[in-house]
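A.,

Following up on our hallway conversation. Structure tokens first:
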């Protein structure tokens, strides 16, 4: 009992604040657990969907790289065919695009 007489109002205030904080923390924890139980399957579904989207993006990147390599291969084949047909080096820059386009169109018209 002597301990109660030696405490002042600040001690009681701090103890009451600590008790209130503990009660509030317990309430928040309880609400948090209930929300997690309620929304857990929804959040797991969203995470699964996000993982699937990541896989799709990675597959698209691989597909684009493959398409770029195929286009580069076809361009090289067309250039080689045009170079063999003309017998002269293909011009560089803007004129090379026009020249290659003309040669491809001529080759397509013949076949």
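Then the amino acids I'd put at each of the 111 positions:
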């Amino acid at each position: 009992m002597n301990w109660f007489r030696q405490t002042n109002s600040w001690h009681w205030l701090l103890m009451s604040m600590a008790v209130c904080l503990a009660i509030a923390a317990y309430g928040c924890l309880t609400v948090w657990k209930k929300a997690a139980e309620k929304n857990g399957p929804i959040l797991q579904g969203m995470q699964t969907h996000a993982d699937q989207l990541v896989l799709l993006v990675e597959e698209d990147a691989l597909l684009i790289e493959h398409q770029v390599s195929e286009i580069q291969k076809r361009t090289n084949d067309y250039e080689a065919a045009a170079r063999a047909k003309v017998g002269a080096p293909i011009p560089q820059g803007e004129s090379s695009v026009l020249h290659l386009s003309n040669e491809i169109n001529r080759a397509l018209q013949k076949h």
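The two ends are 110 Å apart (CA to CA). Curious whether your intuition agrees with the design.

B.
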